[in-house]
Amino acid sequence: MPYITSNHDGARLFYRDYVPASSPAAFAPQSPPDPDDRKKPVLVLTSAWPFSSKMWDHVLVPLVETYRFRCIAPDRRGYGKSEWSGPDTSKAERIDYDTFASDLVQILDTALGVSSSSSGSPGFIGVGSSLGCGELLMALSASTEARNSCKGLIFVATSLPIPLRTAEKPNGPPREFWDNILSSLRRDKLGWLRTGLPFIFGPDKLSDTEMKRYEHMAEESDPIAIERTVQAFLERDLSDLMKSLHDPEKPLSILILQGDKDSVNPIDEGPELVRRCLPDTEIVVYKDGYHGERDPKLGQSGPKLLTQMRTQVSCKPTERGASKISSDSAKVAPVDAL
């Protein structure tokens, strides 16, 4: 799998690039290989804190092999196989949200050639989780070419516009909540992961084996990265940036999948703020879903949702409080369609 050398500081950054199989045949494909597969948008999956791209493994396999999408999944710097900082130590003191976005733009350009994309390019759809949602928006803001190549966004448990209590988000977590997490990580990183991750995913949502996999993924993160990343996303409210991305002549289609028990980003104070800034946003609410929603149905129903995004179907507003969008109320497959 490929690496890039970051233009920011020379850090080596890893990303996974999966192409649908032609030989040997893929297991349980939805359809045989087709030249039109190349016309599908590439899916670019960005990860939640404090995980690497491996958080998407349960989705990547069916998306690539069953539904035949090319998928790119970067490891954010400091996570997975990516370095936190590079040999240019003069840049090490300033690694922030803008750096993450710049790294992502560079990966998009390297893997997809967005800076030289022709009108016939299939472009890409960004699929982000939590922090990864803001990272995608900042990349689109930083690069006109990336914005022009983007065919839509899907946000799973977004933390936008900021995972913090503010005047517009009075029920968000206070700063003390994050300070306690950072203090706990300094004292006993593994101990916090064992007690804190169930809060993110929800009690009894994951098997012990799955939970240990996520613990290991987070444990492998760079110790400086896991702390500074929190500081980075807490200092940026992306409301104004989202408003700046709204263009009636080129609407940005966004689909948000959010749990109704997400205390980090409550529906009315997170996704609804996104929709007010970017009106072409559709919200699907998962009943009993938490911030770390890891429903296997995402891997099953995702392709139908992605197809709708690809064709830029105009959807009716989601019925507030619904656990899913029915096929009668919008031209989007319900989340349990398969």
UniProtKB/TrEMBL annotation:
Taking every annotated instance into account, which residue ranges of this chain make up the domain AB hydrolase-1? 41-291
**InterPro entries noted in UniProt:** AB_hydrolase_1 (IPR000073), AB_hydrolase_fold (IPR029058)
Region feature (Disordered): 314-338
- One Pfam family this sequence matches: Abhydrolase_1
From the Swiss-Prot or TrEMBL record, give the protein name: AB hydrolase-1 domain-containing protein
Tell me what organism the protein belongs to. Answer: Exophiala xenobiotica
